[in-house]
Amino acid sequence: MLNLMFEPLRKYADFTGRARRAEYWLFWLFSMAIEFLIVVLFGWRSGFPSTVEVLIYCVVGLGLFVPSLAVTFRRLHDTDRSAVWLLIAFLPIIGAIVLLVFTFLEGTRGPNRYGPDPKDPYDASAFA
Predict the structure, then answer these.
(1) What angle do CA 94, 96, 99 make, to 5 degrees?
(2) 41-47: long-range contacts at Cβ-Cβ below 8 A with a sequence spacing of 24 or more?
(3) Could you tell me which of 11, 62, 70, 75 has the fewest CB atoms within 10 Å of its CB?
């Protein structure tokens, strides 16, 4: 299970293929945990954080942005949707809800136009 959590970091800028729900949500949990840990470690209190703390937070955020974007592309591919659907997130409220629903949906069973089923380890097309 932890293997799936770090899979988006191994596929840092791989925008092709498919990602299971578990891979997407475990990476989301990992990202939130890292951000929470940074805030706790720096002890952001009522005062302003130092420039170094803000810089570290921004570097970590930017470092997680590309794999987060890539895993979201692959998650949409798993539901047989183009990554263009990610643009719907720019619609206030409704767009975020639609995108959230797409990430919760089960992926298409068997291969689709974006690749083999990531849940099927015996899919022959995965080894071609």
Answers:
(1) 110
(2) none
(3) 62
